[in-house]
Amino acid sequence: MRAYLAGGLAAVAFTASPAFADTAEAEWAPATFELDNGMEVVVLPDHRAPVVTHMVWYKVGAVDEDPGKSGIAHLFEHIMFKETDDLGPGEFDNIVSRLGGQNNAFTSWDYTAYYERVAKQHLEKMMELEAERMTDLIINDDPEGPFISERDVVKEERRQRIDNNPGVILQEQVMSALYQDHPYNITVIGKMEEVSALTPEDGLNFYRKWYTPSEAVLVVAGDVTPEDVRIMAENTYGQIEVTETETPTRGWRPVEPLAETQLLTHSDPKVRQPNWQRWYLSTSYQEDKEMAYALDVALDVLGGGRTSRLYQALVEDQKIAVSASAGAWLSLHDTAPAILSASPSDGVSLDDLETAYMAVVADVLENGFTEEEVERSRNSLAASSIYQRDSQQSMANTYGSTLAIGGTVEDVLSYPDDIRAVTAEDAIAALRTVLGEDRNYIEAHLLPAEEEGDQ
Question: Which 3 state secondary structure label does DSSP give 431?
Fold first, then answer.
């Protein structure tokens, strides 16, 4: 099963604070180097078990698609598993499975990633397989061939995962309004009519432009040494010749502020639980690191869990909501959305829920946070990031996603210290900037069909 990342649509979660290593322990420090053809390599030694996680991150995502070609980044992820000059249809998956491994892939607006988890003696074989499909993928106009058959698979995936999901339909509408002319305004899976029109020639052009060593980051986490990885990488990826003379230009660009506040409503008989949301434009780790860290803490205090201000006020005390939260997709490259959300208890209207929710927000904006709750939040965020290093895949995801959008290894290593440095003043200043009265937003209501007229 292939996956794609589209903010809250994805099962693979990268929208919260990344998982970061502790700078105090040298054994967790990564080794980095670059192959002669420009491929970046990160090695994360972890000798607790004789297994490795092998990931290739391509610096291309939905943000880089040409106008009218939405969905091609995600479609290409599917095609990569089909057929090459030396691998028959489905043989890639079969080889990994026979070796007792696991593999998958995912696409985001900002990158595309492929991974395998295998016993360490099979690492070089994984490199051989990935190098093969980086260079010799088969793309043709055969109706039963990999491009056209997978295009139909993606169209069906869109029907099942988006067109049949009222919450995701509403989210598409919100993102389109929030990001206007920015590429984030189109869901990663693409528009149905544009996916249907993609041609094998589009696929070949995309492949030749983006699937090159210089546009890739290799991350290997597990029971390996940097020296071993270097030798294997040079024997496999290092043999791929550089064909592109110019570095492709990424599709990132500034996000225009919202010109006005809007209300979007979507109702559907499949909706069982109404939901209220507000979407604001905020920042990102790449755009403004210090403000993003401060906002990370602020939103955690405001609506990050069961101890947050919102949950305690609306769910525990007033009992007018069954859920209440606040968060932001700060790991996007460009300006991220900050999202306020709540679902009402039985008999509570969205208007009453909104009034109560925004009363909590107004109190916070006026009176600020206490030192104790900010300290608790920043320590929790730092601790969670360190605990996640126990997972090879989490660490490989963190380093790969950071480097794929232009971040550095130091960004990863310094996170615990940076987040612990956020003060109560920093946190409330960030929140006031994003949620200030002068800021426009998109309000979204998800409703059962029969209740639309009552709101």
Answer: helix
Residue 17 belongs to some domain of the structure: yes
Beta bridge partners, 341, equal: 277, 325
Total domains in the fold of the chain = 2
C-alpha angle 394-75-217 in degrees, rounded to nearest 5:
40
Asked if the structure places residue 256 within a domain, the reply is: no
Give me the catalytic one of 77, 150, 287, 354.
77
The answer to whether residues 198 and 300 belong to one domain is no
Indicate if the alpha-carbon torsion angle 449, 452, 453, 455 is positive or negative: positive
Q: In the annotation, is 77 catalytic?
A: yes
Average pLDDT of the segment spanning 252-262:
97
Say how far apart CA 244 and CA 115 lie, in whole Å.
25
Instruction: For the full predicted model, state whether its pTM sits above 0.85.
Output: yes
- Place 267 in a pLDDT band, splitting at 50, 70 and 90: very high
pLDDT digits (tens, 9 = 90+) for 279-316: 999 999 999 999 999 999 999 999 999 999 999 999 99
pLDDT of 6 over the 70 cut: no
Query: 57 near 112, Cβ under 8 Å?
Result: yes
Report the DSSP beta bridge partners of residue 313. none
CA angle, 390 then 392 then 397, to 5°: 115
Q: Do 282 and 329 reside in the same domain of the chain?
A: yes
Whether the Cβ atoms of residue 3 and residue 161 lie closer than 8 Å to each other:
no
The string of pLDDT tens digits covering residues 181-234 is 999 999 999 999 999 999 999 999 999 999 999 999 999 999 999 999 999 999
